[in-house]
Amino acid sequence: MRQAGHRSLVPDLNRGLHLLEADRWGEAVKKSNDVEARIRGLIEASIAAKQQLLQNRWLVSTVAEVSALIANSLKGGGKILAFGNGGSAADAQHIAAEFVGRFAFDRPALPAMALSVNTSCVTAIGNDYGFDLVFSRQVEAFGRKGDVAIGISTSGNSTNVLCGMLASRKLGLHTLALTGCSGGKLKDVVDYCLCAPSSETPRIQECHILLGHIICQLVEQSIFQDQRSASN
After folding, report:
1. DSSP 132
2. What 3-state class would DSSP assign to 53?
3. The 174-179 sheet, strands edge to edge
């Protein structure tokens, strides 16, 4: 009886194990679906922010105006100084690299620099004068009237970016800020403020790099389109 009883429990145990495995598989599928839904939601949120950029006529016209201004500055021997903190520092580097290297086609290099990349300079200024002055001090060193300063801050309130912009204005640089939806304090101290239509840092940064790419392409085409047409 004990043996028969034992044999009779085997199917139930197997069934229980199968049910447990099925439950685990079901939970895994459910979690997978939840994650995939979250991924789709985040992609949709990014697209929604960019749709708002697309529908903002003032912003589109301002991007065109800013691109023309930057192109004219570079044609006249000016340069671009870009700066920000964290992810915005990376965006400043990215944008500067597009100008110095190339964007859509081969052409001569364009002068642009990100003020966060010289760690000795940043840390020396931060140590001797304070972190608030890490960009303004460099603007004083490298900025000249007619250059373009691009300050990037998702909040629009980064003190060192504000100081950098104030120094830029004092020296006669053209000033452009990339911020989140409010514009923060930066919007009141710059010539142009492109406000990404979001209060979420990732969405703001995704809009910033899109705007940076658009500006790079328009500037590149404006300066070199005649040369490109001739070479083709």
Report:
1. G
2. helix
3. 112-114, 80-84, 148-152, 174-179, 192-195
Q: Which residues contact 98 (CB under 8 A, 6 or more apart)?
A: 212, 213, 216
Residue 183's region, left for phi above 0, alpha for psi from -120 to 50, else beta, is: left
Element (H, E) at 59: helix 57-75
Whole-angstrom Cα distance, residue 192 to residue 178?
9
Pairing assessment for the beta strands 112-114 and 174-179 based on DSSP bridges:
unpaired
User: Which position has the token pair 């990404």?
Assistant: 196
- 3-class SS shares of the chain: helix, strand, coil, % to 5: 65, 10, 25
| Residues β-bridged to residue 46 | none
Packing angle, helices 201-231 and 87-100, rounded to 10? 0
- Tokens 């899109």: give the residue: 210
Predicted structure pTM score: 0.84
Contact 110, 171 (CB under 8 A): no
**Per-residue pLDDT of the chain in tens (232 residues, 90 and over written 9):** 333 333 433 444 444 544 455 455 555 555 557 888 999 999 999 999 999 999 999 999 999 999 999 999 999 999 999 999 999 999 999 999 999 999 999 999 999 999 999 999 999 999 999 999 999 999 999 999 999 999 999 999 999 999 999 999 999 999 999 999 999 999 999 999 999 999 999 999 999 999 999 999 999 999 998 565 555 5
Are 128 and 155 spatial neighbours (Cβ–Cβ below 8 Å)? no
Chain centroid to CA 61: 20
Q: Are 149 and 81 contacting, i.e. CB atoms less than 8 angstroms apart?
A: yes
